[in-house]
Design brief:
By secondary structure, the chain is an alpha/beta fold. The protein has helices spanning 13-21, 40-43, 57-67, 74-82, 84-93, 127-136, 202-210, 240-245, 270-284, 297-303, 305-313, 370-389, 412-426, 433-447, 453-471, and strands at 3-9, 28-31, 48-49, 119-120, 142-144, 148-155, 158-165, 171-181, 214-215, 220-227, 248-250, 289-291, 323-332, 335-337, 350-352, 357-358. Helix content is 35%, strand content 16%.
Length: 483
């Protein structure tokens, strides 16, 4: 059996950028859960943040720390910001096109909680999609689709590779000298979310099972401006960039109520805006809307072409009509604990990058548009570190039994639905300890059932979120405990 130099789990910005940077002389296997575009990167509208220049680095660091309520790993934030412009310039040099202003220069825009304009876009409001398409054309390695990783082959702190489903009943094993986890966050564990439906937190569950450290799992971010008008679990996002450009939030009477909660109103950090909407709706019963009436139509269509087209299909005439909104799950600040080079703690050749990882860079609340940047910066560090260390496995030393498992069972569907509802109602925007403990008790009961492998892993991840929320006794950033 072949031993790959690298196995990369995931095909979002972090996984594909790692693949781009690994020399074509290496034997690399990229495992994609569904199709390559079924990832959060593809749906990312807002943009990618960067320190504009060296003078902006201290301010970018400060904004990231303030948004993260100083729960961040300061060294990780420093690394992120100091490497940000180099990572962007490297993409541009390789052929990536970002939007330009009238002078032909990079067009930096502003978003909530940023002290200046430092967000780059591509195709207006399709930044993630354009970066994803660009990266898909920039790696020479093997990519397999419809591969669902269900185990990591770990022994004596060495990861020998992975086991994965390729259909309902067939499994494969692949060995590698280095394994990079870039599988994304946990979105589908929640009833309402903005994530790809492929993102469900199974790999985090594997890490729980293997005794690897998950960090800050209580820190789950909810995006405040998500279209309320569909019945699908994955909700249509209304980018942070809209508010950065002047869109604002109102109630049924066109009252801009957010300034009663925070001096920055719509431009307050995401956790504040989400909680404010939640609280105001609960107290008043009013519907909440995003208003675009400050925009001129021609400009709006050019700046936000995809949002304009999507909502035209839904029957809205933007920017003349308000859109009903509600918060939904958006991003996991917590994840698989890594060091500053993206290596998973207490392992020798296992890396985690992007939303799956937790370097501590986001703290208790991610600053808008730092996520795509994180994927670029830390995937580069992971590749550089692995090339430097040149770690090699001896697959013949892996002696643990590789057991076959059942992907899904008949009892799974109602339990999955119940778990999503439990997490949304008890581990979302506002929490209380009694509800968290009741939800944890129910998850523990589900773990006693004879469920399929993938649901079992999701249950372990859900449990890790609930336990972390219970253990953190005081509110901090996205973790808000009702008094």
């Amino acid at each position: 059996m072949v031993v790959y130099d690298y196995i990369i789990i995931g095909s979002g910005i972090a996984g594909l950028n790692a693949a781009r940077l690994i020399p074509d002389t290496k034997n690399v296997l990229i495992l994609c859960k569904k199709e390559p575009w079924e990832c959060n990167t593809f749906w990312a509208q807002g943009g990618i943040a960067t320190a504009v220049d060296k003078k902006d680095i201290p301010d970018h660091i400060k904004d990231t720390l303030v948004a993260g309520v100083y729960h961040n790993n300061k060294n990780a934030v420093l690394v992120l910001s100091e490497n940000s412009r180099k990572a962007i310039d490297n993409l541009i040099e390789d052929g990536m096109n970002f939007d330009l202003n009238d002078k032909g220069e990079l067009a930096f825009t502003k978003e909530a909680a940023h002290s200046r304009s430092r967000i780059l876009h591509a195709d207006g409001d399709a930044t993630g999609r354009m970066i994803h398409l660009f990266l898909m054309g920039k790696f020479p390695h093997k990519l397999e689709t419809n591969c669902v990783v269900n185990d990591l082959l770990i022994q004596d702190d060495i990861c020998y590779g992975v086991k994965y489903f390729i259909n309902e009943t067939e499994e494969k094993v692949a060995f590698a000298h280095n394994t990079i986890i870039a599988s994304g966050g946990v979105g589908s564990i929640y009833k309402y979310h903005t994530n790809s439906t492929a993102v469900a937190g199974e790999v985090q569950g594997i890490c729980v099972e293997k005794g690897l450290v998950l960090k800050d799992m209580e820190m789950m971010q909810f995006h405040p401006t998500v279209f309320k008008g569909t019945s699908f679990a994955r909700k249509t996002l209304l980018s942070e960039a809209l508010r950065g450009e002047g869109a604002y939030i109102v109630d049924d009477n066109d009252r801009r109520f957010l300034f009663h909660y925070h001096k920055d109103g719509e431009l307050a950090p995401r956790d504040v805006v989400s909680r404010s909407i939640f609280d105001y709706h609960k107290k008043t019963g009013s519907n909440i809307y995003l208003s675009f009436d400050k925009f001129e139509k021609k400009w709006f269509r050019k700046r936000f072409p995809n949002i304009y087209a999507n909502f035209e299909d839904l029957g809205y005439d933007l920017p003349f009509e308000k859109v009903p909104i509600s918060p939904a799950f958006h991003y996991a600040m917590g994840g698989i604990a890594t060091d500053i080079n993206a290596k998973v703690l207490n392992t020798k050749n296992l890396y985690a990058v992007g939303e799956a990882a937790c370097t501590g860079v986001h703290g208790a609340n991610r600053l808008a548009s730092n996520s795509l940047l994180e994927g670029l910066v830390f995937s580069k560090l992971a590749v550089e570190n692995s090339l430097k260390e040149e770690f090699k496995i001896d697959k013949n030393k892996y002696i643990k039994e590789i057991k076959k498992c059942i992907r899904n069972k008949s009892i799974d569907k109602p339990i999955k639905d119940r778990v999503r509802k439990l997490m949304w109602e008890n581990a979302a925007i506002v929490r209380d300890f009694d509800s968290l403990k009741e939800a944890l008790s129910e998850i523990d009961e589900f773990l006693k059932e004879d469920v399929g492998r993938l649901l079992y892993l999701r249950l372990l991840t859900a449990k890790s979120i609930l336990k972390a929320a219970i253990d953190r006794k005081k509110s901090l950033g996205a973790h808000f405990i009702k008094e």
